[in-house]
Amino acid sequence: MLIRELAAAGEVIDFIVTTMTVDGRRVAGKQLPAHVNCLLAPLDVPWVARRVINNIRPDIYACLETELWPALLAELRKAGVRAVLLNGRVTERSFTRYALGRSLFGPLLGGFSEIAVIRGEDGERFSRLGVDGGRIRVTGNMKYDFPDEDTEAVRRKYREILGVDGEDVFVCGSTRTGEEQILADVYRQLAAERDRKVVWIIAPRHLKRVPEVLSLLTGRGLGYDLFTELAGRGRSRDVVVINCLGELSRLYSAGDYNFVGGSLVDRGGHNIMEAARWGRPVYYGRGLKDFSDAADLLERYGAGFRVADGDELAAAILGHMRERTAYVQACRNAVRAVATQRGAARKQASIILGLLEEKREN
């Protein structure tokens, strides 16, 4: 969204995006426009960072969230390259750690010309870490600022791929070790509901865990299809395992009841707004520490449902299956919650455009 907003402003800008992993680079290359260069991030040692800066000669360096690399930031400062921190956030847990190392983090944060934060609480924490309040702007979270789309058209497309029509679809995305066992029991409870045919979609967070998930399903007596094989022969089982990258964020559109993983186990959770954007309620565990801002937002609007364990998850979904009025209202609430984040990317793009204008004037 940030690149889209910058491009829409009419500026001629060359973009270079860096990722920490080869898989991340592959996904970025697939999702971003062809003219955007995708590279692996340099090692955070002075001479490597200096060489990369001299080769690329950037006008602006945009750091997302808290990817703070001391050597790179120091070399950017020496080279006179303006840096901005976008989508800045400091969780309560992180703040405690940063505060203990304030002598290190203070100078690091001081190197940013401006810091765009997700919430007012994040801004307050940055201030307490020594950042001048005049350099902090509250802009919302651009990870939750999704482009306008025909959500029903996307839903029809993915439900067609999955071969579902009247069935309910239970999507479990970004699941982590220990969660599939719990979710298998939840699925059995949902599938036992009278007059309900339920299709279960499982998307492990890491593809290397797919064999482990398949073994679990076999051990539970559950047949399955692999997502990559559906195009060739269609779905023949009521369980589908996602065995490829880059599909989950849009696959949530096919779901009726979407669970986001990393939250029933203590892994911090994952982006629940990717599921909420399609206008359906979202369910997650109590371990959603890394996306507490999204959970607060969805729960405030009545679109997010936090559960303690598998039994509570099954009860929450069964409640929505049986009380359609409450379910329809939760769907509407999800649409309203997501709408509050529109414009976040535009606000953060304006920071970069302002700094580029300053550079031209100087």
How would you portray this structure in words?
- The longest helix has 18 residues.
- 46% of the residues lie in helices and 16% in strands.
- The chain starts with a helix and ends with a helix.
- It has two domains: 164 residues, 3-Deoxy-D-manno-octulosonic-acid transferase, N-terminal domain (Rossmann fold); 189 residues, Rossmann fold, CATH 3.40.50.2000.
- Helix 14 packs across helix 16 and helix 15 crosses helix 16.
- Helix 4 links the parallel strand 3 and strand 4.
- It is of the alpha/beta class and 362 residues long.
- Strands 9-10-8-7-11-12-13 form a seven-stranded parallel sheet. A four-stranded parallel sheet has the order 3-4-5-6, with helices on both faces. The protein has a two-stranded parallel sheet with strand order 1-2.
CATH architecture annotation of the largest domain: 3-Layer(aba) Sandwich
Assign an overall shape. elongated
- Tally of discrete structural domains: 2
Rg of Cα set? 22 Å
Structural class: alpha/beta
Q: What descriptive keywords fit this protein?
A:
362 residues; alpha/beta; Rossmann fold; 2 domains; four-stranded parallel beta sheet; 17 helices; elongated
Topology diagram in text:
Layout: H1 2-8, E1 16-19, H2 22-31, E2 37-40, H3 46-56, E3 60-64, H4 70-78, E4 82-88, H5 92-100, H6 102-110, E5 114-117, H7 120-128, E6 136-138, H8 151-162, E7 168-175, H9 179-191, E8 198-204, H10 210-219, E9 225-226, H11 230-233, E10 239-241, H12 248-251, E11 257-260, H13 273-276, E12 282-285, H14 292-301, E13 304-307, H15 310-322, H16 324-339, H17 344-361
Parallel strand pairs: 1-2, 3-4, 4-5, 5-6, 7-8, 7-11, 8-10, 9-10, 11-12, 12-13
